[in-house]
Amino acid sequence: DIDETISAKIGSNDLDGVAVAAVAPDGAGLKADLRAGDVILMINSTKIDSKAAFDEELSYFAPGDKIKVTYKREGKTDVKEITLTNID
């Protein structure tokens, strides 16, 4: 979740979305060029406003499913299509 401390650390002035703390090596996020410090705002058409909302939304999908992730990096918003992978 983004609080005032994290917001200041990533250079944002709002508390919307969830901050990416780390990206797993060889994971779907890395393949889609997500980076630590990015802020995830939406998965498909669902607004993400907490880590709980992020975890819940991801739980509806399985490895191999494609999702659209709307994120913000350095003040710019972009959308990436990500193919989910198994944690193993």
Question: Could you walk me through the main structural features you see in this protein, from its secondary elements to its overall organization?
Answer:
- The structure is a single chain.
- The chain has three helices and five strands; from the N terminus they run αβαββαββ.
- The protein has helices spanning 4-9, 28-31, 51-59, and strands at 18-19, 39-43, 46-47, 66-73, 76-83.
- Strands 1, 2, 3, 4 and 5 form a five-stranded antiparallel beta sheet that branches.
- The model has no long low-confidence stretch (mean pLDDT 89).
Low-confidence stretches: none
The average pLDDT value, as a whole number, equals 89
The proportion of residues forming helix, as a percent range, comes to 10-25%
Q: Tell how many strands the DSSP assignment holds.
A: 5
Question: What class do helices, strands and sheet pairing give?
Answer: alpha+beta
- Give the H and E element order: HEHEEHEE
Strand portion: 25-35%
Determine the number of helices (DSSP H or I, runs of at least 4 residues): 3
Distance between the termini: 25 Å
Main sheet summary:
5 strands, antiparallel
List descriptors.
28% strand, five-stranded antiparallel sheet, alpha+beta, 88 residues, globular, single chain
Short account of what is shown:
The chain has 88 residues and is an alpha+beta fold.
Write the SSE topology.
Elements: H1 4-9, E1 18-19, H2 28-31, E2 39-43, E3 46-47, H3 51-59, E4 66-73, E5 76-83
Antiparallel strand pairs: 1-2, 2-3, 2-4, 4-5
